[in-house]
C-alpha cells in the first residue's frame, strides 16, 4: 500500500495542510528537511542556533501556509522563511561571533590525508563565518546548495544582479582568505585561476 501522500507534489501537500490534513505538513518537511537544515547550519555556523532558527522557520511556515500565493516553488518559499529566520538570529547574536567546527563526522573527502581534509573544512567554515551575512547566505544557497540564482533572488527578495554581485564579492573574499589552500608550500604568491574567482 502506498503512503497516503506519495501522489502529492509539494503544492498539493501545502494545500492539503491548509485544508486541515494533519500529516501533510510533516510530509513536506520530511521531503526537504535535510536541505533546509544544511542552509540553516551553514548560514549560522552554530548547530544550536541553526536548530532554533529552523524550528522558528518551520513553525512560521506551518502557521502562514495559507499566505503562500504559488508565485514560486514551495521549496523556494520555505527556503526564504528559513533564511529570514537565520538572519534574525544572526542579528541577535552579532555581539558574540563564533567560529564553528564542522558538524559532519563522516569520513573526509580525501581519505589519504584525513587531518589535512578536516583542517581545510575548518578553514573554509571559518572563512565563511567572516563574510558579511548577505554574501555568506548567497554563497551558501548558490554554491553549496546549488540553487539557481533566480530562485535565490526570489528567496532573498532581491534582484538577480544583487545575488550575482553578492556571490562575486563573497567568492573574492574567500579566495583571498583561503589563498594558502592553493599554495600549500606556505609561500605568499597565489596564482590566479582561469577566469578569476567564481
Annotation keywords:
single chain, 198 residues, mainly alpha, Rna Polymerase Sigma Factor, Chain: A, Arc Repressor Mutant, subunit A, 2 domains, 9 helices, 64% helix, 0% strand, elongated, disordered C terminus
Description of the structure:
This protein is an all-alpha fold and 198 residues long. 64% of the residues lie in helices and 0% in strands. It has nine helices and no strands. It is elongated, with a radius of gyration of 19 Å. The model is unreliable at 97-111 and 186-198 (pLDDT under 50). One of its GO terms (molecular function) is sigma factor activity. Residues 96-115 are annotated as: Disordered. Keywords: DNA-binding, Sigma factor, Transcription, Transcription regulation.
Write a short abstract of this structure.
The protein has 198 residues and is mainly α. It has helices spanning 10-18, 24-44, 47-64, 74-93, 114-130, 133-144, 149-156, 160-177, 179-182.
Shape: elongated
Number of strands: 0
CATH superfamily of the largest domain: RNA polymerase sigma factor, region 2, helix turn helix motif
**Total domains:** 2
Number of helices: 9
Residue-averaged pLDDT: 79
- Please compute the radius of gyration using only Cα atoms: 19 Å
Helix/strand class: mainly alpha
Q: Uncertain runs with pLDDT below 50, 5 residues or more?
A: 97-111, 186-198
Give the termini separation.
48 Å
Helix content: 55-70%
Order of helices and strands: HHHHHHHHH
Strand content: under 5%
- For the record, the CATH architecture of the largest domain stands as Orthogonal Bundle
Largest sheet: none
What is the fold named in CATH at topology level of the largest domain? Rna Polymerase Sigma Factor, Chain: A
CATH C-level class of the largest domain is Mainly Alpha
Amino acid at each position: 500500500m502506498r503512503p497516503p501522500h506519495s501522489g502529492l507534489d509539494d503544492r498539493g501537500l501545502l494545500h492539503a495542510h491548509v485544508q486541515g490534513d494533519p500529516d501533510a505538513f510533516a510530509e513536506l518537511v520530511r521531503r526537504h528537511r535535510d536541505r533546509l537544515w544544511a542552509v540553516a547550519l551553514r548560514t549560522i555556523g552554530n548547530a544550536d542556533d541553526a536548530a532554533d532558527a529552523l524550528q522558528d522557520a518551520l513553525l512560521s511556515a506551518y502557521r502562514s501556509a495559507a499566505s503562500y500565493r504559488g508565485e514560486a516553488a514551495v521549496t523556494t518559499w520555505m527556503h526564504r522563511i528559513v533564511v529570514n529566520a537565520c538572519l534574525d538570529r544572526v542579528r541577535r547574536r552579532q555581539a558574540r561571533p563564533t567560529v564553528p567546527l564542522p558538524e559532519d563526522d563522516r569520513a573526509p573527502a580525501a581519505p589519504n590525508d584525513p587531518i589535512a581534509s578536516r583542517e581545510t573544512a575548518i578553514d573554509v567554515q571559518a572563512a565563511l563565518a567572516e563574510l558579511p551575512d548577505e554574501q555568506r547566505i548567497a554563497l551558501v544557497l548558490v554554491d553549496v546548495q546549488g540553487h539557481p540564482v533566480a530562485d535565490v533572488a526570489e528567496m532573498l527578495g532581491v534582484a538577480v544582479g544583487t545575488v550575482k554581485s553578492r556571490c562575486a564579492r563573497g567568492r573574492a573574499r574567500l579566495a583571498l582568505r583561503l589563498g594558502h589552500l592553493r599554495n600549500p608550500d606556505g609561500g605568499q604568491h597565489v596564482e590566479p585561476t582561469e577566469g578569476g574567482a567564481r
